[in-house]
């Protein structure tokens, strides 16, 4: 019975050492884990199996990159730069309005899980008086 107690004691010490190491890493990984869980929850709302699977793969890949230090946790700046870059694909006359919508002007409705986010910016412009409208006014 004596060897059994030694093995049990060794396993208990090993378990405590593992728990201490895990708690040291927990502080570092708390925000990455929270982000991953939020990403997984958003993926679970996707109805199409292929899209849901791709979403889960992306969430896992992002978590792995954060853990390895390749992807900074604050990705909002990069997302905003990418969103503004997409405005450049639009006709020149629409680019400024796109930038304004992207930067938060106007209204936002919808959700990713619902199929997309709809950003709307309305600007009412009154056209200059044209000869036709002046003729109709007389």
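Q: What amino acid sequence fits the structure above?
A:
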């Amino acid at each position: 019975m004596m060897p059994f107690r030694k093995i049990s004691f060794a396993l208990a010490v090993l378990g405590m050492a593992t728990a201490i190491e895990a708690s040291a890493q927990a502080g570092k990984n708390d925000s990455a884990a929270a982000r991953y869980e939020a990403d997984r929850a958003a993926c679970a709302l996707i109805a199409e199996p292929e899209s849901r699977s791709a979403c889960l793969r992306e969430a896992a890949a992002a978590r792995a990159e954060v853990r390895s230090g390749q992807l900074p946790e604050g990705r909002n700046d990069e997302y905003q730069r990418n969103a503004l870059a997409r405005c450049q694909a639009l006709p020149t006359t629409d680019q400024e309005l796109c930038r304004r919508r992207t930067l938060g002007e106007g209204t936002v409705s919808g959700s990713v899980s619902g199929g997309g986010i709809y950003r709307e910016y309305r600007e009412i412009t009154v056209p200059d008086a044209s000869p036709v409208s002046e003729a109709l006014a007389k």
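Q: And what stands out in the fold?
A: Residues 82 and 114 are 22 Å apart (CA to CA).
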